[in-house]
Amino acid sequence: MNELSCKVLIIGGGPAGYVAAIRAGQLGLDTILVESERLGGTCLNVGCIPSKALIHAAETRHALGDEAKLGAMGLSAAPREIDFARTNTWIKGVVSRLTGGVGVLLKKAGVRSLRGLATISDGKTALVAADTGEQRIRCEHLILATGSEPTPLPALPFGGDVLSSTDALALTQLPASLAVIGAGYIGLELGTAFAKLGVSVTVVEALERILPLYDAELTQPVARRLAELGVEVRLGARALGREGGELRIADAYGDEQRLRADKVLVAVGRRPRTQGFGLERLDLAMSGPSVRIDERCATSMRNVWAIGDLTGEPMLAHRAMAQGEMVAEIIAGAKRAFDRVAIPAVTFTDPEVVNVGLSPEGARERGEIKVAAFPFRANGRALTLQRDDGFVRIVARADNHVVLGVQAVGAAVSELSAAFALALEMGARLEDVAATIHAHPTHSEAFAEAAHAALGHALHL
Ligand code: FAD
Fold it and tell me: What is the number of the ligand 1 atom nearest to the C-alpha of 52?
């Protein structure tokens, strides 16, 4: 067995682990990164990136055949033919450009990368079944970044026609019908994309509403659009199992119903990956199913750190990356804590939804607030793009006007999340946002207008 030693050993090459490795390398720390599958983890290989590529392909196809919108501009609809195997090849191309880039960045930072499953022996040692043979790696600091995996449903175990999000993103042929279990962001993003690709989609959700992490006002435009796209949404319904190409569900009254589903996508959430690599040997304090961490991402064991989805919600790539960067800096001697005002949450449904900071309801629990929204129907850019549904909403303290939260729903509002997050991190007041010149014509003007509205004088409403 080969013996290696390093200052920092990172297990997992997803956004948490690879960013920690790059930053550690940049800071001159002798670093080894171990990844059992592919660099980039869930996000680059089977999550954020392929799903957004699929959404783009689906939207392009859908737009080409939208007679009403095209006709209004004097254009004709094109046939909506699709070679889905080629779509899949294109998506893989996007993924491999990015994952290849991660490999280059790691090399540039002087990080040693190993491919293989790491098994933890103790807080300073791991064994790796690497391509190049068995390795024992000793380290001073161990960073755990093993991520998460799709949660299965006992009644619908993954396999065959029952798909996880990973399986759904690997399809090379479109099914005629698809049932999506779970109306969270992964289920709705993928369900909407498949509907736009011509698949008959039904969403089954146990709760009484879609996207339960957002308030009802924000999700209403998404529900409306799902209906326009012909996606049937069954709320208050539970999946019971699958029989001969049909999904059995219990409706809101407990009555059993069946619906045709050539494929079933189970998207009921993700759980931290804690099994199968010796984590139990460390006997770390847990927080439910996740590894418990403090504000520095330190675990209950000295010099063992945990970052990313392994540490629980919010399971988002940008949180994972920020944690990774921070832990590398702490190991290098910096005094840092994860004290961000807000972590933006974006849902790439149609329309997109953004939440940064507190919702009106959450903010009201802390005191008096001002809330105002500006609709995209009064925004020039939205009209030029034929998408005037949705709004930007701003929430601020009533006394000093400090912005506490910003939400938006609308086409392409994901790009506004940066401005919202910056406003919160900089402690902006309504007056700061309103006084900032926002370029015309852009969606971002709705942000400034919402601030004007909260101050009692929207200009374009
Ligand atoms: P992961 O990305 O899961 O990486 C962990 C890595 O560790 C994996 O590559 C795994 O192979 C490796 N590993 C595990 N155990 C071992 C071991 N013992 N030895 C060696 N290697 C090991 N987030 C967003 O912010 N925006 C989005 O739009 C978004 N869309 C998503 C869409 C889908 C369909 C899915 C499934 C997820 C999406 N996410 C999105 C979530 C995002 O992918 C995760 O939050 C992010 O990948 C977490 O990063 P991580 O590094 O903690 O874990």
Answer: 28
